[in-house]
Amino acid sequence: MVAPIVLHGRAWGELYVARPAGEPVFERADADFATVLASVVAAGIAQTERLEEARRLAYTDALTGLANRRAVDVRLERAIERHRRDGVVVSLVVCDLNGLKRVNDTHGHAAGDRLLERFGSVLSLCGAMLPGALAARLGGDEFCLLAVGPTADQVVKAAEELCRRAAELELGDGVACGVASTEDPIGPVPSARRLFRLADAAQYRAKAERATRPVVAGRAGPDDPVVRLADEPSREADGERRRFRGRHAP
Q1: Which CATH class is domain 69-248?
Q2: What is the pTM of this model?
């Protein structure tokens, strides 16, 4: 006996029911029961699909198809736990896409969206250089790469390629890129928040200096200004960021 499993108005599959040889043949009531059971199976599959779609939407940026900030937060927390437990290298690249406002004002928001989509593709391509890396859009013109396992130098190399390719995009003005890795001399990283602050501070430094290469936290010596900025209280750090920008930006 066969009962169709119908999902969204289409045949998804079939439910087969059989009895051993010599047993009574199926009756109408058996067929009705099989039909009800097939409907229950279809409802379960539909519910699973809805849950999966909800999960996808919750962790995906709608415009670029990259992961979103929520996905980064979850993955980074787990990665830092592995770092504390096993010493695994965790690296974060934070990017700020330059010139998005100018593109929006000059060419319209549709052109700005195309720039975001194209940069998202470049980010994914460079992220593929790092096995298992997560490419994400944090919001607006901010993006990031999260790598767990690759060395800091491998991550910096991917970030350099990202800067190079971003500079070649038809629209926009390249990207400001900051890198922070637990393998570099940045001090203890007890929390995801500290690694993010370090990468964010490096990105602000790159933005202020209009750097065409990534700024890497911890590589400017024992008094690294990026590490100092990241470790200051938020209010003071914001002031330092303004000083960076005021010193280098028009």
Answers
A1: alpha beta
A2: 0.74
